[in-house]
Amino acid sequence: MQKKSISNNYIAIQGWMVEQLGLKGNELLAYALIHGFSQDGKNQFTGSLTYIQQWLNCAHSTAVLTLQSLVKKQLIKKHEIYHNNQKYCTYQAIIPANITQSQNQTTQSENPTPPVRNSNQTSPKIIHNNIYNIEDNITTPSFDTLWQKYGQKGNHTKSKTKYDELTPDEKKQIWQHLTGDEWHVGYLDATTQQNNKYRKNLENYITSREFEKTLEEIECPNITLV
User: What CATH architecture is 9-135?
Assistant: First the structure.
């Protein structure tokens, strides 16, 4: 998925997030990001992991570990939803009971934190226009995009022929398998060791339907699951 610019967007970090929650670094940014969309207790952050990575300016695995840590600390709540038989995750920020309620209520009622937004837009309906939501994650990449992402390993002509024979749903499944999700690394990250030595040629990956297997089922040494 092509990244969208966030140069005109912003998030609000409130003092209690630092002083009372003790957050810093990536966890502070991720919490503030999710809080901006879910502070009303009704909405959820439906953005993609790519969007979180962009704000944290970090690798996939770092974003995953950051979310895992916030969930473990019970500062965000993860929700799982299914679309076209694929699982996606949304998140809600949790404000612990020990946070000063008067301070939090003042923040909410008198000076609410706007969700991540584009400063050039005035419409209040900004949430779904400014994050990579679930629909953005359900992609059917072109072969050229897949070929580049895969590292151009294999026979280009044979791979394209095999790929063109797949259904749109199978192509989406391949993309998710290769890139991973909020809780797992993808096949590409798992096979980057030793200059992609253990990554199958793309035509063989498609023919053997590796995208239907879990990483545990794929014979590949040194796979590290997040």
Answer: Orthogonal Bundle (1.10)
